[in-house]
Amino acid sequence: MNATRIGTDRGPYLHASTTHTYDENGGIDLIAVEHALNGQPVTLTQAEQIYTARLLHDRGYGPTAIGRHIHADHSTVTAWRENGWKPVSVHPKSRKKADR
């Protein structure tokens, strides 16, 4: 019989902050970010997506895995990284079409 105990397939629980729940300067809900870090379903603002993407990148996650956590495609994550973790004005896939 093969069985998996609930919670045994997960890595350590990731925290966005151990002391704050909201970043006033960036308008970021750190509880929502924490849910996204741990693969829980949550709706994030773009600022929260970028913040979460940066935290996951710093923990060694690749663009595809980051995209799964924040519900964005890997090209968007890559564009944010290449832009210094700031929003890009045009979606990366649209930019490629315009450059042709």
Share of β-strand residues: under 5%
Overall mean pLDDT score? 85
Question: Which class of secondary structure composition applies to the elements?
Answer: mainly alpha
Number of strands: 2
Spans of at least 5 consecutive residues with low confidence: none
- Looking at the structure, what is the overall shape? globular
Work out the helicity level. 40-55%
Main sheet makeup: 2 strands, antiparallel
Radius of gyration: 15 Å
Placed side by side, the strands forming the largest sheet appear as 1-2
Number of helices: 5
Secondary-structure element pattern, one letter each? EEHHHHH
- How widely separated are the two ends? 56 Å
Descriptive notes:
This protein is mainly α. The protein is 46% helix and 4% strand. It has helices at residues 30-37, 46-58, 63-70, 74-82, 92-99, and strands at residues 22-23, 28-29. The protein is globular and about 40 Å long.
Summarize the structure.
Helix content is 46%, strand content 4%.
How do the strands and helices of this protein lay out in sequence?
Layout lengths: L21 E2 L4 E2 H8 L8 H13 L4 H8 L3 H9 L9 H8 L1
Antiparallel strand pairs: 1-2
Helix pairs in contact: 1-2, 2-3, 3-4
Features:
single chain, 100 residues, mainly alpha, two-stranded antiparallel sheet, 2 strands, 46% helix, 4% strand, globular
